[in-house]
Design brief:
Layout: H1 2-31, H2 35-48, H3 53-97, H4 101-114, H5 119-157, H6 161-174, H7 179-197
Helix pairs in contact: 1-2, 2-3, 3-4, 4-5, 5-6, 6-7
């Protein structure tokens, strides 16, 4: 019986020594911020002595630290995404404000790749496309107007008043607010009246 008691005492001391060594390793790893390594050692220590609260408390502390680190990393990642998104939207706004609609739409689309559900950027794309289409339509009218005026002026110089009048009427229909084609039509009408009177 004395032999068994001695063996139990030695086993208990061996367990205590192992527990102390594992805790020392865990504490050292914890101090060096090797949280994963420290946690593994605290888990081992807790397995050696399940009733000891210290390793369990340290595991809880490490879990909180790791959760904080993960949250900080996620917050940093979100801030970087927000900064990139905002920079692209700002570049898009600058391009659209300078009437470079295609470049602006491209920047907005790049921003949407970062935040696909952003309705404000979707609205900016719709507005930019509408402005671009309006600009293209206005340019098309300008081109047709200028072509009609050039043609009318050519006919007028050649004294082909009927064709000149038709071309000035076409120009006036494209841009009703312009005085030049109306003035030229009035001039042609006066010329034709003078010819008839003569």
């Amino acid at each position: 019986a004395a032999q068994t008691a001695l063996e139990a005492l030695l086993a208990s001391k061996k367990l205590d020594d192992r527990f102390i060594a594992v805790i020392a390793t865990a504490d050292k790893l914890f101090a060096s911020k090797d949280y994963d390594g420290a946690k593994n050692s605290y888990v081992e220590a807790s397995g050696l002595k399940p009733n000891e609260s210290y390793p369990k408390d340290k595991i809880t502390e490490i879990d909180q630290i790791l959760a904080g680190i993960a949250a900080a990393a996620e917050a940093k990642k979100q801030k970087e995404l927000d900064d990139s998104f905002n920079a692209l939207v700002e570049e898009g706004d600058v391009a659209v404000n300078s009437k470079d609609y295609e470049a602006g739409i491209e920047k907005y689309n790049q921003a949407l790749k970062l935040k696909p559900e952003d309705s404000a950027v979707k609205d900016k794309i719709v507005d930019a496309r509408a402005a671009m289409n309006a600009l293209l339509a206005a340019k098309e009218i300008d081109d047709k107007y200028n072509a009609a005026i050039a043609s009318a002026d050519k006919y007028f110089s050649a004294k082909d008043y009927d064709n000149a009048k038709n071309s000035y009427n076409e120009a006036s229909g494209l841009k009703p607010g312009e005085a030049y084609p109306k003035d030229k039509i009035a001039e042609i009408n006066q010329i034709l009246t003078d010819i008839i009177a003569a």
